[in-house]
Amino acid sequence: MTVREKGRSMMANSFKIGVVCVSSRFDPARAVAVQAWMDEHHPDGDIAITFHPACFMKHGHFAGDDRARAESFIEYANDPRFDAVWFARGGYGSCRMVEAVLPRLNAVARQKRYLGYSDVGTLLAGLYKAGFEHVAHGPMASDSVRHDETAKGALDWLVNGGKAGGGKAWLEPSLAVDRKKAVAFNLTIIDQLVGTVLEPDLSDHVLMIEEVGEALYRVDRMMFHLTGQASIRKVAGIRLGRVSNITYNEPDFGLTPEEIVRYWCARSGIPYLGAADIGHDGGNKIVPFG
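Above: the chain sequence. Below: its structure as tokens.
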């Protein structure tokens, strides 16, 4: 039985999650591993996932060409048989199809929950700007075979949405402290979004950022550009998640990631609010937008 057939066979009496890939290639072996994880942790099929076949397409760097990735997302987002959409992985590519997707999403799509991070942040930003109420930065489907607790938290939010009695265990802790609207992005993604038609209004939001695989001078450069934007200077403050797998540069930059963020927040007049428990790792907590 294929991954797709396995998911379909369990869908009749379960919470149904459609998995799509809007960015880089996704290894079919990883999908098999994710399905095996689901079978182990939800053997009664109370939660069922179905991978869109386009997840396994290949077009150079991407999981299918731009049109294929767009069509697969639209299909599952608009399909009333699915209760939520979970992104398979990040990488790069969602920016190439977001504008084509947004006008074609229907009322059914607006009721669903969408969860992902990294490159998927571009699509989440577009959805948030378009008025979608249930989008969040958080673990993707591929994370379920890496860290059990991460995946359990992600599924809890996808099913329960952070409501009383469920979905809260993996929410980013500072949400309860700040009590303001919040968003979370990979630093590179939000830095590239500002000034584009996909940039949402983040006035009076807490902006949480994280980064992976960049040299610190590049983090500094992105913070210069980001905090120099008039729109970003309207945020309620910035929280810094984890900056991991830092690329070494000679000479050493001489500042820590927190020192860099504090510096540019001070220069731009944006309050620095402290740490956020997000990042490209197993501890990546969920930040619902809004």
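The CA atoms of residues 100 and 171 lie 31 Å apart.
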